[in-house]
Structures are given as structure tokens and as C-alpha cells.
Amino acid sequence: TMTIELLADVAKNHAPKAPTDKLVRIGNVAAYQWIAVENPIELSVKGVWKARDTLELELVGYAKMEFSFAEEWPTPPEGYIGDIDIGEDIMPPMSAEELYERFAFHGPQYHSALKTLHIAARGLKAIAGKTAGKGSLLDVMGQQLGLFLHLTQTENVISFPIKLRELNFYADYTDQSGVFDHTLIITRLTETAITGDMVLKREGKPWAIARDFVCQRFVSEPIIWQTVLRPGRHKIATEIAPGVYHGEDKYRANLIGLLEKRYLDLEDLIKYRTQTHGSQKRSVLLSRIAIKDAVRDYLRPEGGDMLYPVQINLRHDELGKPYVQGFEGLDETERARLDALCVSLSHKDNHAVAIVAERPVGIDVEKIEEKTDGFIKTAFTEGERAILQSITRRQDSRPEPEDVIRFWVAKEAASKKAGTGLTGDPGRYEVLEAAREGDIRVGGDLIRTIKIGEGYIAGWTI
After folding, report:
1. CA gyration radius for the chain?
2. Are the CB atoms for 176 and 46 separated by under 8 Å?
3. pTM above 0.85?
């Protein structure tokens, strides 16, 4: 709706002079993609007169719509003048605070729904008003469509506006003062989309009517949506042991952009956007989710909120060992505690694991798969191969793939704790003792190993 109003301003500047300069209709609105504005950008607008009174404008690469002008304001359709029937109420009304706290990602400048009056079988009724954000009054339309999904559906409740057939005005669109009655009428609901008509009235008279406002519905994991909305209270990675967290890449494409903004600081974004393959980008994002959630939860005060992920910077020293820094805007005490933490990180395919403590730590994750005899001979000492042979259940005495991977993970975790990595010499970190399942001793370190996901081993120093 900010885009709609920005282009409406452009259209108005190119409209015929009075009396034919009343903007009475915006039609065939289509949005191609979101406009990322972390940094200022310049965009081009192209226009063509489709008829004497209709101007088509395109915000190149992002959106297109038509603007129609007339000498007089049109008469509102009969069915929208009086009270509009949206069926029986199905639940009590909702305050604006509850709406924006539980269901919407909009910032305060777009909190234009002042109160929801009726939540009914075929729509919603609310009180709305313009707030500081450009397009905020019109934005209540998409907000109410999204709210209807959240309140009445159990799946595919995340939605984003993609299309609007027409938006008709019965007064000057720039005059948005006062309080408005907003009515949403649901006209179509499928698994992939929700469509509605909306009426905005001021002092009982239609100010604007939208027809066929379409939002696309997306599948989403509830915890991902909650973290996008309230990162101070929710996290995505799962704690699998004290200070140890596991993240699994199951993020829908529609939420990737929001997760990027929640978890990647500027340096992360540069690294992320320079990756040429989608899997590499996913690895960058997944690893940040795992380690930042680990740190955030570790530092969470009793009964308080966590830091936002972007307040934690992940960096690497000259040997590639990760460490974390606090965002410079943090409180000095908070930043000092964060900077003193020790972390370790590993990712493999769709899995990432991270560990955080106030002492040196190491962690690794690998896929369970058969390794060649050459690998086993290179990776393990004679003593390690003897231990592998002693615990195998195979009749041919060959090491079992799961045990081989557990040993390798343990060696990697120990070397990461030391801050060196294996550096091409895996014999430097030797398995001295191992149970059939569970803990493995590598030098002076005890490594806990467990299965995660479908066929992966994670191991960390304890």
C-alpha cells in the first residue's frame, strides 16, 4: 500500500488539470516482489496513457497499476452504503494490542487497525485510522485479510498481498484524517489464496471500496513465524543438550527473506548474497540460526527477552575458528559477557549444530555413510582402527559406518576445541576409548555423540 500511494502521487502529478483531476480508481494492481529498503535505493517509474483518463504506471521490476481520473466523484454501489452482512460473530472482538502482538509483523507506523469490532463467519469489522507510515490506512485491508486467516484457519496462515482488481475512491485519497469503519467481506478462500472486498467508511459514508484483494497463502512452521514476529521471545534452533543447539533447514522460500533480515548482520548479508548456489546460501543462513540462537538462549535473563539475532556478530579468526561479538549498540556489560563466550559451529547438508559455553568447546556433525578402506587408513591410527574393529558387529570385522563417523566427529570436535582443526593430520587427535554408543575419549577430551535427523551424527566436547 505504500507503493500504491507513492505511484498515486506520481499519477496525480501527471493528471489533467481540474476539474478532471479527481483520482477515482486504481485498477489491475499487481506486485511482483518486495522492495528491500535496508539501504536507500532509486527506482524507475514508467508510464503510458491507456485512455484519455487512464494512466498505467510501473515501478520497474516491482509493481504495476492503472489510475483513472474523472470530473466528479462516483456514486458508491448500493450494496455497500448501509450495514454490510458478514454473518454471525464466531468469537469475541480483539484489541489492537493483541492483533499486533500475536499475529502481525507490522511496525508501529503501520498499526492502523485501532480495534477489531466483529470477527464473523464471512469477514471482519474494525475501526481504522491513518498512522505515520505512508499507505498505512490502506494497509489495514491486507492486515485484516491476514488476521482472518490466523483466526479461522489452522494451516497456511501466513499470507502476502499479490493482486488487487480495483480500488475505487469516493473522496480525495489524500484526505485520510479521522476515524474509519473498515469492513472485510471474504469472497473466496482456497488452500493457496484468500480474496476479499473491503469498504472504508468515514462518518457513515464510503470513502473507498476495494474489490478482489488477493493474498497468497503459504505453508509455514509456527515456530518460524513466531520467531519472525517476536525474535526476543522465540528461537528456531532446538536445544539438544545444555548449551548445544540443532538447526534443520526446512524453511519455506516465502520466509527466507524475513529470516535473512532477522539473523544476518551486514557482513553476513554480504557473504550470503555473494554465494552462487542456493545450497551455499542456505548453509550460511542455517549456521547463523544455530549459533545465534545458542548464544541468545544462553544469555537470556531469568524471565526476560533474548537478544535479537542481528545483535550478535559471528566472526572467524585467522585459523577459521568462530567467535561472537556483540553489536556495538548493546549495553557495555551485556556486550562484554557476550564477547567472552566460547562457541563452535558445524553444518552438513540440511543440519547445523552449535555449542556455547564460558570455556573452549568444539562440535561437529557428519552424515552416516560408508567410507573407503583408504579413508579409514588415513583418518585413523592403528590403535583407533583396533578399537573400531573391537566394537563392530560385522562378521567380516570391518568397521560399521556409524562407528567410523562417530570417531571422525569426535576427532573433529576435539580439534575444534583446541582451535586448530585437524589441519590434514587427523592422527594428532586420537581416540583412546569408546563405548558402543555414546561418549568417546579423544586425548584429554570427552566427546558426547548422538544421532540427529535422518542418518547424521553430532558430537561435542563435555
Report:
1. 29
2. no
3. no
